[in-house]
Amino acid sequence: MPGRGIRSAAIALLLVAGLAAGCGAGPVTRVEIRIHYSTFEPETVTVPRGVPITFVLINEDPIDHEWLIGDAAFHERHRHGTEPQHGQRPNEISLPPLTTVETTLTFDSPGTLLYICHFPRHEAYGMKGTLTIT
């Protein structure tokens, strides 16, 4: 059949391009953060600006935690806030015991933000991390 060789070559080229794209060192788009013994693992994360990042937050502890990400002013407000639950905003996540929650954020500017659990004594215990946007 005429054209069959062209179709086969086109399909092969698409498959190779798809495999190359999947194996390349493209931007990070998914970050897994575990909560274990009231600490965030990893404590430091670097992501590119302008790319949607899906954070997979895994609470392995038998107690509630939260993952709040923002600048110093944001965290100062939350240290004295009264919200017992979060979840309606993608940068303010409540994590019941032994659960996994995903949230997606895009950071438009380079810089540094903190992620902290503001439950009583959790931040003082060391439950905080740093996000660097490049």
Question: How would you describe the overall organization of this protein?
Answer:
The chain has 134 residues and is α+β, with helices and mostly antiparallel strands. The chain has a single domain, classed as Cupredoxins -  blue copper proteins (Immunoglobulin-like, Sandwich). It has 3 helices and 9 strands. The strands form 2 sheets. A 5-stranded mixed sheet has the order 3-9-8-5-6, with helices on one face. A 4-stranded mixed sheet has the order 2-1-4-7, with no helix packed on it. The longest helix has 20 residues, at 4-23. The radius of gyration is 20 Å and the shape is globular.
Give a summary of the structure in a few sentences:
The protein is of the alpha+beta class and 134 residues long. The protein contains three helices and nine strands; from the N terminus they run H-E-E-E-E-E-H-E-E-E-H-E.
**Assigned CATH class:** Mainly Beta
Structural class: alpha+beta
CATH topology: Immunoglobulin-like
Please give the radius of gyration in angstroms.
20 Å
What would CATH call the homologous superfamily?
Cupredoxins -  blue copper proteins
Number of alpha- plus pi-helical segments: 3
